[in-house]
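## Example pair
The file below holds two records. Each record gives the amino-acid sequence first, followed by its structure token line.
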Amino acid sequence: MKVSNAKWAERLDGEMPESLAREVDIFETELTLRKQGKVDERLIAETRLRRGVYGQRYDNGQRHNGKAVQSFTYPSGSLTKGPSTMWDAPGMQRIKIPAGGLNAGQLETLAELAEEYSDGIAHVTTRQDVQLHYVHIEDTPTVMRRLAAARITTREACGNSVRNVTACPYAGVCQDQAFDVTPYSKAMSKFLLGHPDCQNFGRKFKPSFSGCSQHACGLASMHDLGLIAVTRVENGKEKRGFETYVGGGLGAVPYQAKLFDAFVPPDEILPLAQSIARVFAARGEKKNRSRARIKFLIQDLGIEKFRELVLEERKNLPHDPRWTELVADAETFEETPLRPGGMAPLLGTEAFQRWVKNNTRPQRQQGYVVVTIALPLGDITANQLRSLADIARRFTNETIRATVEQNIVLRWISQADLVEVHKALDAAGLAQPGAGTIVDVVTCPGTDTCKLGISSSRGLSAELRKRLNEKSFELDESVQGLHIKVSGCFNSCGQHHVADMGFYGVSRKMSGYAVPHFQVVLGGEWENNGQSYGLPVIAIPSKNIPEVVSRLTGRFAGSRRNGESFKDFIKRTGKVELKRMLEDLARPPADPSDRSYFRDWGDPREYGLQDMGIGECAGEVVSPVDFELAAAERELFEAQVAWEGGQIEQAGATAYQSMLRAAKALVKIETQAVSDDPGQIVREFRARFYDTQKFFDPFAGGKFAQYLFTAQEKSGEAATQDSARYLIDEAQLFIDAAHSCYNRIATPVSV
């Protein structure tokens, strides 16, 4: 049962920080004014997003807490029907957890809110946040107040703002760290939260902190601002500093961060972040959201010019005492254990030994380990949260962190307590082994709740986890440490670009019907802060992805050379051979009556048929368009092979040609009077599909059409390794969007 506002306020009288209380009061007033029609919907959308309140997708008529769960209204042109306003259905509340740090009381607060306002489940994200789904918007002010009383804010958990400041969950206890980045990440989170210089961005801004360069815990390379702890000796004394990177990001087109400065002193990280924010706010794109991230600004300006602008801004900044105050005590910051360290047990059950192997990690402090609680799909129930709070109090000083792999870690566990800790976790259903291994599949919410989802990432991830668990004893040791990451769409919320095997949802047609597919992305690198990104190889029906994993892991285990990494194995094998190995899985089933291909994992309905509208396209043009889109995919594959072989100019030119071919395929649906002239193709495509919004994705709008227009504008420029790589990624997204556009307007044929 929900606790009333009055009762809750009475229970926590005096506990809620005044600043947070005032923020929530303002938000509640804005919601009231919107209900009265006194605030524009566009304004309230950004207001609620900046407080972490999202719209949510349908849930197939399920009910949660006695409330019917229906669809939110999709953007104009959507093919899915739903309630008419934001107020008619539940959504998602994202909760900001700086550096992933939590205590037992906060876990209990999350448990209560999950039970009373959500579906009883809290979801840990790939950026150390927590999300509650199926929360009704009228309940969000109460949720925010109860979080604020536990010293948690939802402010700027979304929107065009500074998102959660993430940090290595092992900071302070990692054996390989330069120093503990925890206090610095908290200082930056506090400094940038609500900062006036961070309120006028065109898009989001994501910072992160890493304690070392060799592991993936902080993923500095894929952040807008990534700071890696380093030290150097000056005048005989060791000094702390940060190797600072800017302009990284995954999303639809991944960018590697550029080195800004090899050594930034601790008392300069906050003014530097402020200066970067000011340059981004002043010069970043505002109108074209597909190019509004700071990575595009740095690409356009070049890192040297960007650095020059930032340093000039820094020179002119008025002094702020918080620059030094917030980091003053960082060097003396130290966590302490609850119980004395001890020796690891020599014996234990087989289940215990399996759990110890992958779910524990020695700390730099002798006698202690970090314990990882593996959360399938990133989910943890309300009762499990309460049990975990009890365990944290019993064995630690409540030193709890969420991780970017959607798990939770307990730090400062005495090795002498491991047997008892395992028993307690097992009783709560939290002792699943295999943390950080191939079994520990990372996934975004996908079509379960996300309005951008194309294919069921959670359904596929659950199936992969199930099959891999069943075969875990048989898996070769070389395969055990691989990483699988799944995204429901191109946006890489599941971080598929930095996985050994990454998958993102796309739609393709078989026998005239839309069929859920996943693009197979290979060659990414999780270690070294996500140092390199994989490239798409081939789109495979969702039902065949488990076989993709089986073939790739089997081939890797059987032909690996001298401790070769999976990334190097993929590079040695090459795109041509990889595609040959998998291409039979992209074909329709031999048995035409097999309807399993038309259903996504975890969804009994046939994919897309209940949501698709009937377009004006005639049936006889289906085959030519399919043929031309397939040819565009072939050309793009040739571009990937050229890039892989170092033929950069050819790669860029072929990627551009593949986009033109896909655009022409769509144009020819409406007119045959189009030549091979790039200018005419782009003009006709713009007039017939962009200006009319026929090409607009229900969720991404005309974002991917802009990739074609930009490619045409830059077609005379010499390609670089980076620009050709970006163009290949953009071409893949444009072709995927062309498939989706055609699926929306084509009339299905009988099968």
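Second record, same layout:
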Amino acid sequence: MKSYLSLIPISAKVRRRQNRMTLLCIIFAVFMVTAVFSMAEMGARMEQSRLLHKHGSLSFQELFSSEMGQSLILIAGILFLLILIAGVLMISSSMNSLVAQRTRFFGMMRCIGMSRQQIIRFVRLEALNWCKTAVPIGLGLGIITTWGLCAALRFLVGEEFSEIPLFRVSIIGIVSGIIVGVVTVLFAAGSPSKRAAKVSPITAVTGNSENGNKVRHSVNIRLAKIETALGIHHAVSVKKNLILMTGSFALSIILFLSFSVLIEFVNYLMPQSAAASDISISSSDGINSISTNLAETIGSMEGVKQVYGRRSAFDIPAGLNGDKTLSTTVDMISFDEFDLDCLEKDGMLQRGSNLSKVYEDSHYALATWDRSCSWKIGDKILVGDEELEIAGLLKYDLFSSDGLTDGKMTLIISGETFTRLTGVTDYTLLMVQMEQNAADEDVQAISDTVGSNYNFSDNRGERTGGTYLAFVACVYGFLVIITLVTVLNIVNSISMSVSARMKQYGAMRAVGMDERQITKMIAAEAFTYAFWGCAAGCGIGLLFSKLLYDFLITEHFTYAVWNFPASLVAVIILFVMLAAILAVYAPTKRIRSMEITETINDL
């Protein structure tokens, strides 16, 4: 061996199993950044091609000044920073645990003359050595994922993605991935390398750096049993490790909440409605003049899946909450049963709404709403000589271009209620949904039936379902990866923390602590990390989620209102708790299978 640095590849082979989580963290960071920036570049190339067709020439300044170009830069930049921070915390946490397990090794290196600076250099170069394996794997996965996504967008989605490049390698994505891989590792290696340098030669004998820590007070057992109190003490006694562990969990939760906002952004950008029509037929004079017979005729034609219509009446004198002077006006629009069902399917109703009251001939209605509205569920509206009660509120005004009511109430009632109040049975608008395998000839037959008496519109070319599914699939794919890495990080970190204290656990077993108590102690440590990780992650993540929601959604969709994502937080807590339970299983099984003397002599 020519130099102490020759130990680096030897150590990597010997500790291959222990290094897996660290390698996975690096691969995750490189893969995410490579995929994000590669897709951003492919999107920019697609936008460039579109603008070239439109304008004939295009400069980079024009490209990046476009709305799509600015959105791509902003989103990619935010994700870059979040992934970088998450990667640093996860890798640093993993490396700290590795250093804690190798205290005897670093103590021996100090015994044979290695200086603190050499220890720091050794740990950093050892970390960079992982990049030789992890970075190429991350780059390869990022490139392959980009190719797969581009192919899916072009051939499965089509529409505006028909010009997206295929099998192109993004230099920006590759360079960004390499930079993140190396920078993340160098940042992450800072704290562990300094910790390793502080190991004294005497540690070569004891094999446990924590033995040198001064015990200033005994473990508090008044609020919990001794094994639980010891587990909590193990988690909080080393502040740096606690910060890194909880920080890595918190960043994963923040990433999860941030990506979830992107899903809502796509929902607002490309709203999908179960009531979206393939064909719309409207009266040319804007009044209720489309016969119900036409609806029945079209409903029996080949290729037709669903026919539903709307009737409308505008500026009807009305009085709100006891106003018998009818000093205000409302608009009334009837929804068929299918149309009403779709409101609930699309999540358009506010909490507390009771849609079941609105069906058939009733005295109930739904009302459009925004934040400036004074009406609420349960209010009474006098229309003519009949009183209607608001059974539910919509989240925004479906019938305005900006989603705002501008102070004008629009009531949605059933067709039967509308006919009772107005005596009108014909439709203003008739909508048709076609079967998946419907042919152009079927649409033409409907057009011929309608004739020239009404306005006929074929909306099939305006479908955005494929594009929507593509974006949502990408976001959910990243969420799955984040969740997987978070779970693996928790499990691995707890396992390595236990391994670093194996000698302590052996001593505890030797003085009479049974397997059940050992399990409870490890569980207490794991759930302490989980608790603080959830508390920090949800606290900061919800704040960041609100800021991101306001920037991406509220600023462009003024009717949008951020709500506390209770179900999402519940899912996050459930996953973290399950990960903590999984983290306890492996190390406790390993301790139970070892003899007491073997555990004491471990390390």
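Notes on the second record: The CA atoms of residues 507 and 600 lie 6 Å apart. The chain has a mean pLDDT of 80.
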